[in-house]
Structures are given as C-alpha cells and as structure tokens.
Amino acid sequence: MKNSNLNNNTPTFKREPLVIYLITSFTFLLILLRLIFLQLLNHDNYKKMSDENRIRLLATQPIRGRIIDKNGLILADNRLRYSLIIKPQYVDENEWQKYKSEISKLLNISSDSLQRKYSDGIKNKNFSITLLDDLTVDQVIKFKENENSLNGVEILSRIIRNYPYKNIASHVIGYTQPITDSEFSILSKKGYKLNDSIGRTGIEYVFEDQIRGEWGGEMIEVNSSGTFVKSVGIKPSKQGKDVELTIDMNLQLVAEEVLKDKKAGAIVVMDPRDGAIRAMASKPTFDLNFFSKDFKPQKEYDSLFNSPTKPLFNRALNAYDPGSVWKIVTAIAGLESGSFPPETLLETKPCITYGSQCFREHNDLGFGTIGYEDALRVSSNTFFYQIGYGVGVDAIYDVSKKLGFASLSGIEISEQENIGLVASSKWAKEGRGWGEPGRTPWVPEDIASMSIGQFVVQVTPIQLARAYAAIANGGYLVTPHLSKQKRQGVTIQEPKKIDIDPINIELVKNGLRKVVESGTGVSINYGVSNLPPVSGKTGTAEDGEGGSDHAWFVCFTPSDKSELLIVAFAQNTPGGGSVHALPMAREILKVWNKN
User: What is the mean pLDDT of residues 547-571?
Assistant: First the structure.
C-alpha cells in the first residue's frame, strides 16, 4: 500500500521543475520584450519624458505693450500689484484667528472682511486665498517687517494692466481679462499660459497679437529629488509692442467733460480729411481698472453688467433716430434725382398730409417759399417732406448707402458697432425685419418720416461723422480709424471718391454754412473768439423706442478745407439740438482752437 502511493506521486515531482522552468522562461521573455519596447521602439518618447522630469521651465511673464495717444500720453500700461494671500493648508483654525486679528491691526483692514474672504476660500477649497488685493507700498513694508510671525501668509506680486485715466476713453481702449479654462485648450497652442490675460474689447482686443508680447523663462536641470543642479539656458520674455492712437487727449478730456451732465450720449471728433479719430466718448462710462482686480465686489459687478444704463455700451457706435441731421441725405437725393435741381423753390406750410396723417412744420407756420440752402438753414420739415415724397424711398436709400449709412464704418473696434437701419421698398416687402413678407407694405406715412430722419431711419454717430466728412472734404468717403498701425491682414482704406455730383455737394455745404451764420446753429459762435468759420446742422429726433427726444449737432471747421468734424449726441435729452448738443461741440471747438 505504501509503495503503491510512492509510485503514484513520482510523476508529480518530475513535472514541477518543468512547470517552474516554463513560468520563469515566459517571465524573462516578457521582461525582454518590455526592454526592447522601452529601449528600442519607444526610446525617443521616454527620453523626452525623462528630460521633462529633469528639465524645468521657470516662466517669465511678458510685459504688455502700452497704448498711447497721438502726443505720447499713456492711456494703458502695466504695474506691479501686491496681494496678501494665505495658504490654509499650513494654518489651523486657532492660528487663523490669531493671524486675522494681527493682520487687521497691522494693515488697518476690517477683520470681518478678512473672515469673509477666508471663509469663501475654504468653502471653495482653494489652496491660496486672497485676503487683500492691491496693497499699498506702506502696507507691503509693514507686512514684510512682521512676516516671520505669520506662517502661511505671503505677499504675491504680479504684473497687471493699469489705466491711468481710469474711465476716460474706456470704450475705445477696452480691457483685458484672464483667459478661461475652456479658452486655454485653444490659446495654449498660441503661447498663452493658464493665468494669462487677453484683450476683450476695444484696442486691447483688436491689437492683442501686437500688444501681448511673448513669454520667456529659464530652463533649469534638477536631480531626482527635485534639487537644482544647473541653469540650462535663459530666453528673455519679449515685451509687447506699443500702439499709438490718433486720439488727442486734450480733446478726449473735454469730450468726456461735456457729457457729464447728460443722462447718456456720445461724442465723435474726427479729421474729415482722412478719418483719424481725435476723440470718442460715450456716457455712461466705466473704470477700466475694475477688470484688473482679483476680487470684484458684487455691487461693482452689477453696476457694470446688470445696470439698465448699460455703461459697457458704446453709444458712439450704436444706432438712434437722427432727426434733422439726416436732411442732408434727402437734399442730395432730390438733387441727384434731377427732379429737384439746385434752383428748386418749394412752398413750406404749417403741415402736409401723407396718408392719414398731417405732418407738421416744426414752427407750425411754415417759412414761405424757399430753396435748399434756406431749408437747411431753418431746418424746414415740410420742404424735405416734399423732396422725399417726390423722389421716393429707394432714391434716398441709394444716396444713404453712398454716404456710408446702413453699413459698418470700417473702424477697428467694429465688434461694438451697429449698422443701423435705412428703410427701402425691398425692406418693407420682406417684412421690415419683424413681419411676414408681403404683409408690411410701404405706406405714404413712411416717406414723410424717412425724409426727416424718423422711425424708419436709425444711424450711429460714427456714420454721421463719415457722411458729413464727405460734405466737408468735397466728396470723399473716409474710413474712421483709431490707429495708423496696420493690423494683420487689414490695411487702412484710403478716402474713396463717392458717386455724387460735386456741385450738389457744394450746394449742401453752403446750406450748412448758413445754418451757423444765421440759422438754427448760430449760437455756436457765442463766447468764442477767433474761431474759424464753422458749418453744421442741428437735429432734434423723436425716440422711436418711446423715450424723450434726442439732441444732435454735427459741425466741421474751417468751413473750407476742414480739419475737424464733431458729432455731438445727447440721448433722451428733450429741448433740441441747439440747446443741448450744440454747446457740447462749442466747448470742444474752444479747446481745439487753442491748440
């Protein structure tokens, strides 16, 4: 029995070495294959990974280029911002209570404010919590003198965008903001870092590629424990290029000042010879430095983004009912049609009926029988009703397009721009933008409104600047621009000769001179000495959205060989263009005349 058992087990003992041998051989074969894969087939990839673990890059932030006015005044630059931060992972609750009291006394800041920011950071599981943003130099010095007793609390310094004039030309300059996580996946390929800022609006946005600069840094070698071994090389960061604007801060400051007592409005000051913008202001405005803050108070945030006054809205590029400043378009349409030649005389009346409505003269009397120049001088409604009705909607539309209306102006900050509206028979047949095609036909009342710039016409201040510049410069449509520097793929357009008879342009220009000499714009010369001759047009427009009247005034000077053009607009400011908009332009002319 015993011998039998031994005999049965013998084959098992003989098989065990063979199994162990096979397992060992297979294991070594796997190791060999893995070594071949690592050393031969994937050598380059793993060498790169090894180098990346051994080589570290200490990135150096580039300095963003400045934005300056035509005289070299700095509108946007950079400065160091010092923030007080705490790393909560190194501080327990008892230490925090002690630190909070000490920091409050040391830096003269409310302990409640410190606690609120600390609690918010803990709630959001932040590893770095900003306790105080934008420290003064005095606060930095006081902290440095006491930092040894505040473990885990540090001063963090970084370069931020700075706007010395705060809310001046804010819609033109624009602002920067940190890139988002979703943007980083795309922008990282263009050299952006996770905490980078990027231009969001205005010149900051348009010239981002030139202004931003390039990151640099130092490559260092470390050992397996992460200890510094040596510097491999340094690539200096590349500072961004400055952008010089056509803005003249002397004119910009007065443009902002004259808007201060207005509910809302805009000013455009332009050289009618080439379209260079000398000032562009919009009211309400906002402090550009708000966007450089790490901590943005909710109240300030709401006043910008949720306010019914819309301070981020650039009114110089938004469309409104133009009223009587539109009458130059109707005048040129009448002249160009041949139906109402330069010598035309028309009887003006208290009102003229179109459709079911009697459209009134603004003085409720009429001005007798007058021609184009006097019609512009006194701003007769009934004269231009007759011209507009006589030539028709499409003739007015065609002239308006030649003068640059119902299209983008070409200004660099076009992301803020509205093309406005100029009615046409096609527009009416297609539903007027809100109705069904064929159900909203053109009616007689429309042409009367259109003739004097009401309801079916909406234009922007910058479009008016272009149109009046074409009158001032003898028939050339200019492209408004804020900088003479070329953007990538974009060239500044040269003034373009428009297809309008120069004789007709000259007639309208003479009418605009009479407006200031003895018409509705005569007060432009009050209180001003040695001012060159001015030509212009006042305008009062009903608000198509139901608000109070708008006030307009457009002028250029000298009347011959003009060098400066001003569009002044006071939104929802009843009383007339000569009362509210004209005085704004006069103050700008005073400053320009002294330069």
Answer: 97
